[in-house]
Design brief:
Rossmann fold, about 200 residues, alpha/beta, 9 strands, 7-stranded mixed β-sheet, two-stranded antiparallel ribbon
Length: about 200
């Protein structure tokens, strides 16, 4: 079954590009109905427009009121009849208006193995801590930052001598494969959230 996606981003949009590439390659059974950016200068918007995708950018005035912003976004996502909301480098927390409109259907990508290294600086924090293994997590977003049910994780062994930039590059390489693959599991109806808040993948 093909699913309709709404993608939220704030920056360069490399994960949006990975999703677009997977759809065009026929390995992801989905369509992107709307791309929402929290920044008007996000390069991800250019990627979206290049592929003829509908975009939405809210002004700083609207974003100054997070709940109002999320009400606008939720209304637009519903208008485009999206099945899943995909956070792809979206540097804002989503709130009740979006979470309530799409229960267990807001998906986030985090550049660490949750519950370790939550927050916006996960790669740097893991690097500074000197971990030997880190990785990438795909999870459902909820009202707590980086705490929702985990759908998929992939580990990365940190090599001696890597700079933080090299670590980040390898993290992104994993993201660009793991995220589309995990979204495909959703398209196939293979992901279920159990009553205890953990995820079953069939």
């Amino acid at each position: 079954m093909s699913i309709k996606l709404g993608v939220l981003l704030s920056g360069s949009g490399t994960n949006l590009q990975a999703i677009i590439d997977s759809i065009e390659a026929g390995t992801l059974d989905a369509s992107i109905e709307l791309v929402v950016s929290s920044r008007m200068d996000a390069y991800g918007l250019k990627r979206a427009e290049k592929h003829g995708l509908q975009t939405l950018t809210l002004s700083k005035d609207i974003y100054a009121e997070p709940l109002v912003a999320d009400e606008v976004i939720a209304a637009e996502l519903k208008r485009y009849q999206v099945d899943y909301v995909i956070m792809a480098g979206y540097m804002r927390m989503v709130h009740a208006p979006i979470l309530a409109a799409f229960p267990n259907r807001v998906v986030n990508l985090h550049p660490a193995l949750l519950p370790s290294f939550k927050g916006a600086h996960a790669i740097q924090d893991a690097y500074d801590y000197g971990v030997k293994v880190t990785g990438v997590t795909v999870h459902f977003a909820n009202e707590k930052y980086d705490c929702g049910p985990i759908i998929a994780q992939q580990a990365l062994e940190v090599q001696e001598g890597w700079s933080v930039d090299e670590l980040e590059e390898h993290i992104h390489q994993i993201e660009h494969v793991l995220y589309p693959r995990t979204i495909q599991l959703l398209a196939e109806g293979r992901v279920r959230v159990r009553d205890n808040g953990t995820v079953e993948v069939a």
